[in-house]
Amino acid sequence: MPNNEILKRVEEIVKKQCENDSTGHDWTHVDRVRKIALLIAKKEGGDPFIIELAALLHDVEDWKTKDAGSGKAAKILEQAGADKDVTNYVVRIISKISFKGIDNDDKMGTIEGKIVQDADRLDAIGAIGIVRTCYYSANRGRRFYDPAMKPDVKKVKDINRKTTAINHFYEKLLLLRDRMNTETAKKMAEKRHLFMEAFLKQFKEEWDGK
Ligand code: ADP
Ligand code: NI
Question: Which ligand has the shortest distance to the CA of 58?
């Protein structure tokens, strides 16, 4: 099976699966992660075929959902005609990709993994990151801000606790700039990070009636 045919099939399956997503993992997120990852790869290297497959599949087994560890990604790759080596390589990458809090080992061993992880994290910050966070929080019925609820970086994995959209910036989003793997992503993250800081500053000022 030619690589571009495998990619086309995987894209079709993933697109269909995330059509009605309300958790911030919609198709447009997947598509942006793919674009950013391929852009980073142009400067940093890595196998573009593996990178594109891992980007397309990176959220199908999200740790926060029942799909975690379900073998869904491997099944999709098999269905699309990928061989065993490619499947194993991609599955290894996506099992490590997610940010599960500051104490979790999420180090990537391969350049392809580093790049896709960076791309996923870049899409979690900046203007798009702000919108995704508000969207996710609203869907979970959370307040956008409550000064009485303090951020707690140790509780990121407790997804059912009471928290706010603004807390998520302090528990995850503002930490991502310094957790980028590649130099290219570090540069891209800087602009997005500064934008979030400016947003939070203005938000607090308006909250205080200034
Ligand atoms: P990723 O796709 O980067 O692995 P997640 O699966 O953790 O990220 O979450 C997807 C997006 O949903 C995040 O980028 C963020 O915008 C939003 N999100 C996740 N967890 C929370 C949370 N506890 N509060 C607010 N937004 C969240
Ligand atoms: Ni993602």
Answer: 2
C-beta separation of 72 from 90 below 8 A: no
Tokens read off for 29: 């997120």
In tens, the pLDDT along 54-112 reads 999 999 987 566 666 778 999 999 999 999 999 999 999 998 886 565 566 667 889 99
Residue ranges of alpha helices (H) inside 102-175 are: 111-122, 126-139, 165-171
CA 137 to ligand 1 centroid distance, Å: 9
Q: Which residue, among 96, 111, 99, 94, has the nearest Cα to 40 in the 3D structure?
A: 111
Report residues near ion ligand 2: CB below 5 Å: 59, 120
**115: enclosing H helix or E strand:** helix 111-122
Instruction: Output DSSP code: residue 167.
Output: H
CA atoms of 59 and 54, how far apart (whole Å): 9
Atom 6 of ligand 1 has which residue's CA nearest to it? Answer: 62
Q: Which two tokens stand for residue 107?
A: 């180090």
Atom of ligand 1 nearest to the CA of 97: 4
Backbone Cα Rg of the chain: 18
Q: Which ligand is in closest contact with the Cα of 196?
A: 1
Please write the tens of the pLDDT for every residue from 115-159.
Answer: 999 999 999 999 999 999 999 999 999 999 999 999 988 877 777
Instruction: Please tell me the pTM assigned to this model.
Output: 0.92
CA separation for the pair 49, 51 (Å, rounded): 5
